[in-house]
Structures are given as C-alpha cells and as structure tokens.
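Both lines are quoted verbatim for reference:

——
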Amino acid sequence: MKSVYVFPGQGSQRKGMGEGLFARFPGLVAQADDILGYSLRELCLDDPDRVLGRTQYTQPALYAVSALQYLDRIAAGEELPGVVAGHSLGEYCALFAAGAFDFATGLDLVRKRGELMSQAPKGAMAAVVNLDQERVAEILAGLPYENIDIANINSRQQCILSGAYDEVHAPEVRAVYTEAGASFIPLNVSAAFHSRCMTDVQEEFARYLSGVELKELHIPVVANCTARMYPTTGYADLLIRQISSPVKWYESISWLMSRGHTDFHEIGPGQVLTKLTDKIRQEPLPAEKAPPAPRRTRQRPEVVFMYGGQGTQYHRMGKQLYETHPAFRDAMDRCSALYEAANGTSLVAAIHDSTRRGQDFDDILHTHAALYSLGWSLTEALRAEGFHPDAVLGHSLGEYIAATVAGVMSFEDGLDLVMKQAHLLKLRCRTGGMLSVLAAPDLYQRRRDLFGGLSLAGVNFTGASLGNFVVSGESERLADVRAALDDEGVVAVRLPVRYAFHSGVLDDIQAECRSLGRAVTVSRPRLPVYSSAYARQMDDDAPEHLETYAWDVVRGRVRFDELMSTSFRVPENHYFVDLSASGSFVNFLKHGYGPDYRGAFAINQFGNNNASMEKLCEGLRSVTSATAALV
C-alpha cells in the first residue's frame, strides 16, 4: 500500500528551517517574497526581528517550507503518496500536494489565515496529558465555563483545550485536571485556535476563500474536521470549518491504520507528528465495527425512513391526513400541546392557517417545530399501520427527527431542542436565505465569480444530465445569483427559509447552539442512523451529549450525495420511505439515482394525502413480505 504523507502544524517551526530548499526553488521563493512583502529565506533561516513565532509569520513560513520539502522529495524521484493529511495548518500543505491549489495560492491563503488569527481576541490553550479524551470531556462538561473547547485530540492521552484566556487560566481548571491525574501544560499562544472563539475569524476567512478557485483533488486527503476523506470537489466548507472545529488527529491516523496504512512520512520541520504516530500505533482508537457478513438471502430489503428539513414546508401540509388519520392527528395534537405550553399558541392552527394559503410558510418559530412534528407524526401514523423502520436517515433539520425515532433522544427533548433553537435563530442570528439550483454541483466551483460570498449548503444529487445543489447566504447575494442564473437558463428556486442554514452566517450562535445540544440526555440508538451531515452511518455508541452533532446538523454542509454513494450502493437492498413534507427524497432518487432506488412518499403539496399514504403502505406491504436476493 502506498505511503501516507503527513504535514505538521503551528509549533513545529524553528529558526533555520528550510536550509538548502530555498536555493533549489528560486522561482517559488521569489513568488513568496512578492506575496508576503518580506524575505521568506531571511525569516526562516535568520529571523532577525524574532517574529517567526508570531502567528502571522509562522503560518506562511511553515506552509512554504513544508510545501518546498514535498516538491523536493517528489523531484528526487519519490513515488507520489497514496494519502495525505495535515495537522491544522498542515492541512493546507496536504491540499497543495493533492492539487487543490498552486504554491502561490496556498501561501496567500495561509497568509490571510495567519493574519486573521493573529487579530483574534486574546485566548489561551493548554495541553492535557495522561488522561483519556472521554475523561477530559467529562471534566470539561462539569466546569462552570462556556468558552472552553477541546481543540485537538492528538493521541489517546493527549488533548488540547482552547478558549477564553481567563477561563483556560482559571486556577480551578488546572486543579481539577491535575487532581484527575493529568499534566496540565499551558501553551505559548495568544489566541484560542480551533475553538468557538474563532467564529469571527472563520466568517472573515470564508469571505476571503469565496474568491479562490479550489481544484479537484487527485490524492485522497483526510480532513481534520471529520477524520475522513475530503470529497474531491466542493470541499471549501471543510477548510472553513477547520478554523473553529477540533483537529481529530488521533481518529484520523487510527482510521488510516485500520485500513491498512502503515507507512507514514512527516514532511516538514521537526518530528512532532512522527512521535504522535508512534504513540497512536501503540494505542489506536478502536476501529469502527465491521458490517455483518452478507447473507445470500434475507427476508426483505432494509426499510429506511427519511426525514427532511427547512425549505420543504408549506401551509396546510398534512391537513387532509390530520382530518382522516387518527394516529397522525393524535401525534400532531400531542406536538401542538407541547408547543402551546412553551409558546402560548397552537402549532396545528399555525400550520393549517387557511388565510395564509399560497404564502411562504417561513416563520422560524413555527416552521422548525412544524417540520419536526410532521416527521414524527408521519412515523407514528405508519407505526399504527404496522410499519416500522429498519434504519433512519436525516437531512438537515430532519436529522433531529431521525435521532428521535432511533431512540437517541426522547420525543419531548427533540421538540424542545428545535423550539429553543428556533428562538435562538430569531433572537441572535442575521437573516439570509437559501437557493436550490438545478444544475451539476461543479457549477459552484467553476463559477466562483458568480457564487462568491455564498456557501455551498448541500448537494442532493449529481445525475447523468442534471444535478441539484443548494447555496446559502445573504438575501441580496441570493437575489443577484438567481437573476444571473435565470439569464443563463439555469433553474434556481428560492426556498421559503429566512436564515442561511449551513453557512457562516449562523456562526454567531455556535456556542448557544452547542449548549442546547449539551443539555439533552441521549441514549444508544436502537436503529442505524444515517447522517447527511457526516455522510455515513452514525457510531453505535451515542455521545455523552449532542452538542457537536446539534451544531453540525445546521452548520455543516448537507452531504446527501456522498451518503447515498457510500451507504446505499446496492439499491435493491433498501426501500426508502420519504417522510418529508414535500416528497423531496423521491424526486432526488428519481432524477439523481435511477429507477433501481425504490421508494414512495407519504405526502406532498400537490396530491391527495390519503391516496399518497395508501400507495406508500401498499409499497411497504409488498417489500416487507418479499424475499430479496442480497448481492
């Protein structure tokens, strides 16, 4: 198996690094001097002004030296690596090696990144050594501080805390970790990297990155945010999220090792990652459980209940079913009662308001709870008919419904979470919107001149002649882009959503959103849960709290296309039950995945709810009684 090249991050810099490289690449060094406005060689070899340790100088210098060392290695005849990965800043070197951008573009990006980080409010970081990550997180959850995060998980017993200066340096923080048997080592940094304190930096960097063309990757790259591979295109959001998200280095290297990678080479100054790799090799994170061995036959396909999110809602959704299906009505009334107890008004009355028919249903205080309640109530209706899911799948807000149906959290806690999140959005978040574009997703990357300032919120499918992706951002930019696409003959539809979900516009509420998730009691899922945010099946072991997941669901990109391509490769093994309000998933399957992907919707805005539900039940009766061969 080919080797893995790993690139170090900030902290590996040293005076004298790069000696011998600068003379071999004079053209690139001249480019660097022009971009930086000072001598790269002088900074790295002599550091006459003693600034190499300052973030705005460290980051471009370290990127340049590591990138040049990579080029030097390849020029000497070394084989291209099979996989690349980088720790924090080093991820830019990994992306350079994979072809995401040229040397100069990467240098300019890290220059801007370092500049923005150096201007961040005063923060602090500290290493916690000789304590497992789970214990570090448990202690942190019990502290009376809201602005400290786990920034790096480097090995089984090495984590880095990051946050507000006064909180990280509070005497009780050191004391509680020391009492637990850990070494608590403050780091010599001036900002809280990879924490919620970086959200303003992240938003500013996102705006800068929107003007940069990111190319298709030709070597697999492991992302710090996910500890899984980058998609080959449409990956800007991972670079953006990296600024405030933890570096999952322990999981990344363990995951690579579990897949047979053993030959690791550190490219850059120092041996920090080499030493970490040796530690991880001795105590890797347990590998993901392998799927059960396939059987030649099984009784029926896996029935997957699918739940949609914001943008699928409309006034009077499910009204006919409410009037005729007792189980559906009882479930909706139960939801409405909880909503009314919290908000003083009837949720059912807001959904079925006949005076608003034909108008956008876009008041977040109604729609968040309405979509959650609809998905839950449709599930209850099918249960009453004798149908139960074998697995669940969530798309954006629908992930909360899927988690509830799988037993990760209670129905009451799930509804409470979405109601509180709606109030948080209304109170603290700038308004914006979302635009669904009916075109191949690579249009977003190819036309950065057109989509600049907007985030790629999600990709639903890429068909042979058609695709669908969603962009998110400020309302004025969306209007401009929609008009431009219309002029070019590209269909784009503004979704009935007042907030820019899955974009940096939401970053103002990150801390509060994570706090809402932290308050929820969770259990081990009773069913497989497929996540569009993570493009994979969720781990069987439920997290101690939902703070990270609750945030990623609304902020991370919806990777439905990746999820379908990795988890549902054999269509005859699954039957998809579309419990969104609009029948969106059935349309995705039809246009993006082909006729072999079978499924039916419960309701949509055009047809007869009762007829749709009966057709769905007929389909379920057919597949649940059939014997299907497993390929």
Residues 288-298, 627-631 have pLDDT under 50 and may be disordered. Residues 256 and 442 are 28 Å apart (CA to CA).
